């Protein structure tokens, strides 16, 4: 028995033979198909089968463990962009504030920085298309594009009149490793595990050794607020410090 929607009286039934239970997958898929068909035919408002199937897949995966999840194609594509650490774009860190896309910071030596974008700038339109009301992911998708392509953005800075900026997209490399030296102690911050993390870590450690003339006495590895990323990169980072063990 499946209760659907907001009306407690709307109950749909999918028949399953109780006399001779068939726990095989095909029988369960038949029940699933019947429920899907009933919802499409009888639900109080139109609903796409893709939405229901995605929900069913997410529920199935959720039953496994807290660390397994289902990514639909759009989310998977975005994850691939993030984990490669490279994409065609402007080179700005952005957030959403009151329905507007706000620049948190331009990344050094990127088209956005060279164009003079500043923290707190609001990006109102992209190629004459308003960003107001879009989700952050949708807005970012419009800002990104092929390397060498031109983009026109309308910028609102403080109380000044909005102005238009034309920028040529370039390859943006996400710097996932940052480091500093405190006396003879090296500090290494890893913000995410992307394809650029292990090379970045190796370069950072080499630089720290060079700065101390080989007398580096220790390293603080900072993983706070790191959202994760590629498992193999996390393993490589671990291998840089651990000789054996799980």
Short summary of the structure?
With about 250 residues, this protein is of the alpha+beta class. The chain contains 7 helices and 13 strands.
Describe, in plain words, how this protein is organized in 3D.
Helix content is 33%, strand content 25%. The two termini are 46 Å apart. The longest helix has 18 residues, at 25-42. With 246 residues, it is α+β, with helices and mostly antiparallel strands. Strands 4, 5, 6, 7, 8 and 9 form a 6-stranded antiparallel sheet that branches. It has helices spanning 25-42, 49-62, 73-84, 111-114, 136-143, 197-211, 231-241, and strands at residues 2-3, 11-12, 86-89, 92-97, 100-106, 122-126, 129-130, 150-156, 163-168, 170-173, 177-182, 185-190, 218-222. It contains 7 helices and 13 strands. Mean pLDDT is 84; it is low at 1-13. β1 and β2 (11-12) form a beta hairpin.
Q: Strand tally, please?
A: 13
Q: What letter string, H or E per element, gives the SSE order?
A: EEHHHEEEHEEHEEEEEHEH
Q: Specify the biggest β-sheet.
A: 6 strands, antiparallel
Overall pLDDT level: 84
Keywords:
246 residues; 7 helices; 33% helix; disordered N terminus
Protein topology:
Blueprint lengths: L1 E2 L7 E2 L12 H18 L6 H14 L10 H12 L1 E4 L2 E6 L2 E7 L4 H4 L7 E5 L2 E2 L5 H8 L6 E7 L6 E6 L1 E4 L3 E6 L2 E6 L6 H15 L6 E5 L8 H11 L5
